[in-house]
Amino acid sequence: SFVKFNGLNYDEWSEKIRFTLGIIALDIAILINEEPAAITNESSETEKAHYLAWERSNRLGLNLMRMTMADNIKPSMPKTEKAREFMLKVKECSQSDLADKSIVGSLMSELTTKRFDWSQPIHDHVTHMSNLAAKLKTLGMDEEGRLKKMKDQAVHFVSHDGASNSKGKPSKKGKKGKS
User: Per residue in 52-63, pLDDT tens?
Assistant: First the structure.
């Protein structure tokens, strides 16, 4: 299975892409710096074969890279038709604030909406949630501290709300004793 690029894992993602393209002999487009000259009537058979190999490598390499991106990252990825340039721009984007904001939003969404559903061991669920919190922390989001503060505020709110509701109302014990 492929590693999906999520904005935080460029090194792992690019290593898998390079390895995969190398294994299937489609890495020429990410290895050479420049696109070969276009085919003309004067092109030799070797030049034609080299261009066609590069074009196929470029097209399939781009498709593979785009397919292995998380859906929330795809809209912010660069628009280019050259695999090598795409990989370099993805690296730049992975280190930018734009990627960080997109990733933080995605991680926050998953952290706050994911529920334990018994489809996996509870240990795996807790580990996954801890990993999400750790990723947020590396991006400068101290979610643990924010959640603790929210919990404290909720307890404070409930305790004050409960105290105001009990004033002026007779207790059930008082009602039974008077009947």
Answer: 999 999 999 999
**Are 4 and 67 within 8 A, CB to CB?**
no
Contact call for residues 35 and 82 (beta carbons, < 8 A): yes
DSSP track, 80-118: -S-HHHHHHHHHHHHTSHHHHHHHHHHHHHHHHH----S
Q: Where are the alpha helices (DSSP H) in the chain?
A: 10-23, 28-31, 45-67, 83-94, 97-113, 122-138, 143-166, 172-178
Cα separation, 30 vs 91, whole angstroms: 13
Dihedral sign computed on CA atoms, order 120, 149, 110, 61: negative
- Sign of the dihedral through C-alpha 166, 167, 169, 172: positive
Is residue 102 exposed (0-12), middle (13-18) or buried (19+ Cβ within 10 Å)?
buried
- Whole-prediction pTM value? 0.54
Kindly state the tokens that stand for 154. 């909720």
> How many Cβ atoms are within 10 Å of 72's Cβ, its own excluded?
15
Q: Hey, what are 94's tokens?
A: 């992975």
Distance, CA of 32 to chain centre: 29
Which pLDDT score, from 0 to 100, does residue 97 have?
A: 54
